[in-house]
Amino acid sequence: MATASERKALLAPSSAEAVNRNSLSAEDSHDKDFKEAFDELSLEGPKKSDGSEFKKGIKGWMMSIFYLLIIFICDAAISVLIMYLLLIQMRERPYYFGKGTHVGGTPHVVFEPNPTRYDVVTRGVIKFSPADPRTYQNLMIRYKKILREEYSPKKIANCSSIVGVLNGAPTNESVCSVESNSYEEFGDCALTRENIKRGMGFSRAEPCIMLRFSKVFGWFPSHSEDSDSRRCSSDGSCCNKKRISFSCSSSTLDLKLLPSDGMSTCAFPFWNKDGYEQPFVMLKLSNLTNGKHEVRCKPTLKSIERMDDDTQNVARIKFEVFS
User: Fold this and answer.
1) Where are the transmembrane segments (predicted)?
2) CA–CA separation, 299 vs 309, rounded Å?
3) How confident is the model over 283-321, as pLDDT tens digits?
4) Cα–Cα distance, 190 to 199 (Å, whole number)
5) Segments in the chain forming alpha helices (H)
6) What is residue 126's three-state secondary structure?
7) Are residues 162 and 266 in contact, defined by beta-carbon separation less than 8 angstroms?
8) Does residue 25 carry a pLDDT above 60?
9) Binning pLDDT at 50, 70 and 90, where does residue 98 land?
C-alpha cells in the first residue's frame, strides 16, 4: 500500500510537463497579441509617417537637396543625349518616302479626269458614249473643278517667260502660270471653259486626257547628276529647254502629246505656295471605236522611270466606248 508521500509524488506534475505548459501559454499569449495588432492595423490602416524617421536640421536639408540635384542632373543628361541623337540624324533637306500626294521620293504619273475621284466603282475605267453627253458629264465636272481650283486666272508670271529656279531652291520663282488656256501649247485640248462646254473632245470621240505628276515637296527633276547642268542663264530659256517628256502607247488608238516635247521644269519644285499651278501635258486620242481600249504613259526622264519600290512609273488609262 502506497504511502502518503508516494501518492503526492504521483499526483504532482513532472518538471517537463510544467515547462511544456509554460511554453504553450507563452505561444498563446504571442498569438493573441499578434491577432490584436493585426485587427488594429486592419481597422486603422498603416501608420502614417510623421517625419521622425528622417534626419532634421541642416544635414537633412542638404541630403534632400543633394538627392533632388542628382535626379535633375540625370534627367538633363538623358534629355541632352536624346536631342544629340536627333540632331546628328538631321539632313539639309527633308527625306521623303513612299508615293502619293505631297510625300514620296518619286512623283507618280497620274491622269485626269480620273473616274475614281468621284466613283470608286468605276475602277478607273472611263466609260462613255460620244453621242450622249450625260455619259461623260461627270468627267466635265471634274475638269471644271480642276480649272476653277487650280488654274484660275492669277496675276503671276507665265512659266514660259521666267528664268526658273536655281538648283531647285525653295523660292517663289516656281509659282508661275502654266498657261493652261493656251491653244498654242495645248491646241484643241486647251483647258478653257469653252472647251469643257464642248466636251473636251469626248463628243467627237477624240478625248483629251491630262497627264501630270503627284505633288512632292521639294522635288526637282534631275536631268543630270552634275549640278552645273541645272543652272539657269539670264535669257529665261533654261527651264523651258529642260523638259519632261512622256512615252505613251496603245495597240488600238492614235495618240498625240500636247505639247509634243512635254512639260517644262519652270514650275518645279512644289512648295505648296499660294497661286501654285501644277504643270501638265495633254494627251489627245483618236481612232476611238466601240469597245475597250487601254493607254499606257510613262515619263522618259531616267531619274523617275521607276518608283521607290522599283515598280514602273506608269499611268494606265482604260476606256470603254459604246454607242
Assistant:
1) 65-87
2) 17
3) 999 999 999 999 999 999 998 998 888 899 999 999 999
4) 12
5) 4-11, 15-44, 58-87, 137-150, 183-186, 193-197, 238-241
6) strand
7) yes
8) no
9) very low
- Cα separation, 316 vs 296, in Å, equals 5
Mean pLDDT of the chain: 79
CA dihedral over 92, 244, 144, 101, signed as positive or negative: negative
Give the amino acid at 179.
E
Give the start-end residues of each E strand in the chain: 109-112, 125-128, 208-213, 243-244, 246-249, 254-258, 263-264, 281-286, 291-299, 315-321
Instruction: Name the grid cell of 25.
Output: 501559454
**How far apart are the C-alpha atoms of 28 and 168, rounded to whole Å?**
92
Distance CA 318, CA 124 (A): 7
DSSP strand pairing (315-321 vs 125-128): parallel
Closest to 163 measured CA to CA, from 270, 271, 264: 264
Set of cell numbers at residue 108:
507618280
Whole-model pTM: value is 0.65
Task: Say if residues 191 and 296 touch (Cβ distance below 8 Å).
Answer: no
Do residues 298 and 281 make contact, with C-beta atoms less than 8 angstroms apart? no
Contact 195, 188 (CB under 8 A): yes
Residue with cell 552634275: 226
Which pLDDT score is estimated for 97? 47
Percentage with pLDDT > 90 across the chain = 44
The residue among 320, 319, 318, 316 whose CA lies nearest residue 109 is 316
Instruction: Classify burial at 306, counting beta carbons within 10 Å of its beta carbon; exposed 0-12, middle 13-18, buried 19 or more.
Output: middle
Integer Cα distance of 65 and 69 in angstroms: 6
